[in-house]
Amino acid sequence: MKAKIILLALTLASTGCANQNFDMANLNLDKVVETAGKVYKGPAQITEAQEIAMGEGIASNLLGAAPLLDNKPVQQYINQVGRWLSVQTERPDLPWHFAVLEDEDVNAFAAPGGYIFITKGLLIRMKSEAELAGVLAHEIAHVLKRHHVEAIRKSTRTTLITDLAKESLQQSGVGPALTNLIGVGTELYARGLDKGDEYEADRMGVVIAARAGYDPYGLPAVLLTLQGMNPTHSSLALMFKTHPALSDRLDLLDRTMSGALDRFEMQPDLSPRFTSVMNNAGSGN
Amino acid sequence: MMAKFIELLKNKERVMKWKAAIFLSLLLNMTLSGWAQAGEIAYTVRATELKARPFSDAATLGRLMQRTKVEVVARRSSWMQVQVDGKTGWVKMLSLKFNQASNKAGSSGLATLFNVASSGGSSRSATTGVRGLSEKDLKNTKPNPRAFAVMQTYAVNKSEAKQFASAGKLNSQSVGYLAESASGGAR
Q1: Which of A142, A45, A46, A42 is nearest to A91 (CA)?
Q2: Which of A52, A53, A177, A259 is most buried per CB count within 10 Å?
Q3: What stretches of B30-180 show up as alpha helix (H) in DSSP?
């Protein structure tokens, strides 16, 4: 018995030794240092402050592609609805901003950190505040789940994120790594997010609208309206390219919502307030 | 610089006011209560019951076959009020699909109105060429810090948001996020 244990110990020691020799012979010093560096830095994370800085740059880029609708009452109304929705969420203290873009396209965009855009082309197809709330809440959900931040992180080199971390420590203002990531983030709107992210934003959006006291069926009502548009219309091209099919989104919302949100069906859609703001849209005060 | 720019915007708004006043008399006659004047045509995507009221346990007025043509009158949450064969009743919203030909851009009348509203100029910075939100435009865009600064001025704080909600009699509710539907992905 004793002899067996000694033999085993010897065997282990000798193989261990052999392995060590083998490793030493093949040692690639650069690789070891690189690996150690990666372990030291940990997985690349994007902080909330970096997320907001990225969002500001992306928002500014979107405003370079399409101007703001020049209408203060409408812009303030969008912010009132959007900010009230954001208060119902797990990130109520982000710098939430909402804006209508002067563009005939039918679309809406969320930039990291709480910058939300909706086009005039989409707004004019809505019929109530609950519909507006449903669309804004879908975009808010993208920000809550950091869908764009994650998509940006996945589509760039890890070193760019670590460069961003260094940059954030070294300087204030927009450095080269941040500029680079803002560019990646802006181009993302031409490609779109994962379908799963869009379905998740739909599911969360209807709940956020319900939490804010609205009829939760505003979002599906808008999707139904868009389904009634001519699908070959150019104003729909980018939205169709970057989102799952309307029929799939409606199917999933139908199944997810029925039963679960019945008790909120009596909540108001505030179509009179929506109509009143839109009717006075030309008065400019 | 910023103050000057905001002042410029205000002047534009004043110009817009009288421009808008010209159109006001026209607009006064328009009742923009959503569906009412639109009379959009839809058809059923599945067989469905026509209900007397927007509730599952309301009296059934009749049964609509798949692809029945209806005229949409109003929406109440998950229900649409429709007219069909001289009868008015309610069907589940998601049992309908709009007829693509009948639902043109801005059928609610807001499109025309917005064209009036935005004709007074806009806060776009001086650039040449047509821009927009196409894939190509998004790839070639440049930052617009001036418009970004204007966007910041529209922000609403939490207490203003709460006031806005009470004015609309909106009450916060407690409700958890919904799980993915049990039957999984899209059909």
Answers
A1: A142
A2: A53
A3: 110-117, 135-140, 145-153, 158-167
Residues paired with B69 in a beta bridge:
B43
Judged by CB atoms closer than 8 Å, whether chains meet at B180 and A203 is answered as: yes
pLDDT band with cut points at 50, 70 and 90 for residue A37: very low
Query: Quick check: B22 contacting A, CB < 8 Å?
Result: no
- Whether residue A55 contacts residue B148, with contact meaning beta carbons closer than 8 Å, is answered with no
B residues 70-89 lying closer than 8 A (beta carbon) to A: 75-78
Please tell me the predicted confidence (pLDDT) of residue A12: 45
CA distances from A40 to A33, A44, A47, A162, A177 (A): 10, 11, 18, 12, 20
| pLDDT tens digits, B60-93 | 999 999 999 999 999 999 999 999 999 999 999 9
B152 Cβ under 8 Å from any chain A Cβ:
yes
B34 touches chain A (CB under 8 A): yes
Q: Does the interface predicted TM-score (ipTM) exceed 0.95?
A: no
Q: Which of A3-17, A216-230, B110-124 has the lowest mean pLDDT?
A: B110-124
What are the residues whose beta carbons fall under 8 Å from the beta carbon of A199, sequence distance 6 or more?
A: A244, A249, A252, B180
3-state secondary structure chain A: CHHHHHHHHHHHHHHHHHHHHHHHHCCCHHHHHHHHHHHHHCCCCCCHHHHHHHHHHHHHHHHHHCCECCCHHHHHHHHHHHHHHHHCCCCCCCCCEEEEECCCCCCEEEECCCEEEEEHHHHCCCCCHHHHHHHHHHHHHHHHCCHHHHHHHHCCCHHHHHHHHHHHHHCCCCCHHHHHHHHHHHHHHHHCCCHHHHHHHHHHHHHHHHHCCCCCCHHHHHHHHHHCCCCCCHHHHHHHHHCCCHHHHHHHHHHHHCCCCHHHCCCCCCHHHHHHHHHCCCCCC
Using a CB–CB cutoff of 8 Å, tell me whether B10 touches chain A.
Answer: no
pLDDT in tens, A135-187: 999 999 999 999 999 999 998 888 899 889 888 888 777 889 999 999 999 99
Residues of chain B predicted below pLDDT 50: 1, 5, 18, 21-34, 36-37, 103-109, 111-113, 115-129, 184-187
Residues A76-106 pLDDT 10s: 999 999 999 999 999 999 999 999 999 999 9
- How far is the C-alpha of A91 from the C-alpha of A93, rounded, in Å? 6
Cβ pair A69:B118 closer than 8 A: yes
